[in-house]
Design brief:
The protein is mainly alpha-helical and about 60 residues long. Helices cover about 55% and strands about 10% of the residues. It has a two-stranded antiparallel sheet.
């Protein structure tokens, strides 16, 4: 029986605004974001996701000051 593959390297997480090994909750937020951004082409979608993660990272830094 084939096993599901899991990602064991850090990935950009929109939920936490961080790079880490993402769990199912993190992937749910990522997939929701991509489904709501289907109007964008692939490159624009990747760029917008990166910008959203960076915004979340900056928001986290400001909150933790």
């Amino acid at each position: 029986m084939p096993q599901a593959t899991t990602t064991t390297h850090p990935t950009m997480c929109l939920k936490h605004g961080d790079f880490h090994v993402m769990d199912s909750d993190c992937w749910d937020v990522t997939l929701d974001w991509y489904f709501s951004s289907q109007h964008l082409n692939d490159q624009a979608s990747r760029d917008a996701y990166l910008a959203a993660v960076e915004r979340q990272m900056l928001d986290n830094l400001i909150r933790n000051r």
